[in-house]
UniProtKB/TrEMBL annotation:
UniProt cross-references to Gene3D superfamilies, sorted A to Z: HUPs (3.40.50.620)
Binding site for substrate: 10, 42, 74, 88
Source species: Pueribacillus theae
Domain Cytidyltransferase-like: from-to ranges: 6-134
GO MF term (any one): ATP binding
Superkingdom classification of source: Bacteria
Cofactor: Mg(2+)
Assembly information from the UniProt record: Homohexamer.
This protein's pathway: Cofactor biosynthesis; coenzyme A biosynthesis; CoA from (R)-pantothenate: step 4/5
Catalysed conversion reaction: (R)-4'-phosphopantetheine + ATP + H(+) = 3'-dephospho-CoA + diphosphate
Function recorded in the entry: Reversibly transfers an adenylyl group from ATP to 4'-phosphopantetheine, yielding dephospho-CoA (dPCoA) and pyrophosphate.
Entry annotated with the keyword Acyltransferase: no
Protein name per UniProt: Phosphopantetheine adenylyltransferase
Subcellular location: Cytoplasm
Length: 162
């Protein structure tokens, strides 16, 4: 049986921490589907289409990674695409309580889909998309926090001279 995992999130924008989790997941699973959640309750900086494009660019060298987007419950999306695993990245102990609740609810909704937690590389344990956007908004350097293509996209969004 193929091991298909979903790594979901808003990825607004993708950080090197996200990329680390995706790459490490790709070494464990036959296929990793990066599912961009289209959350209508949030006002993202990048459109879903832009996020797909940025993720495709940053993962193009990982042959078993596929980029997609979805609405609704993650567990429903997992069933739809035939995934049997969900990958969740953990930065710190503070993430664990929230992620445990989500994993428990997903297990209640479908006990055949497992959740795998991957601890982030310590180098990225402080990193979040929100922090990256805040730094970029005020023209701080996000080099070393996001892939170069994302850094350029952030500069365009915030009209920062290159």
């Amino acid at each position: 049986m193929r091991k298909v995992a979903i790594c979901s999130g808003s990825f607004d924008p993708i950080t090197l921490g996200h990329l680390d989790i995706i790459k490490r997941g790709a070494t464990v699973f036959d296929e990793v589907i990066v599912g961009i959640l289209n959350n209508i309750n949030k006002k993202p900086l990048f459109s879903v289409e832009e996020r797909i494009e940025l993720l495709e660019e940053t993962t193009r060298d990982i042959p078993n990674v596929k980029i997609d987007s979805f609405n609704g419950l993650l567990i429903d999306y997992a069933k739809k695409v035939g995934a049997n695993c969900i990958i969740r990245g953990l930065r710190a102990v503070s993430d664990f309580e929230y992620e445990m609740q989500i994993a428990s609810m997903n297990r209640k909704l479908d006990n055949e889909i497992e959740t795998f937690f991957i601890m982030t590389n310590n180098e990225y344990s402080f990193l979040s998309s929100s922090i990256v956007k805040e730094v970029a908004k005020y023209q701080g350097s996000v080099s070393g926090l996001v892939p170069p293509v994302v850094e350029e996209a952030l500069k365009r969004k915030f009209s920062i001279p290159r």
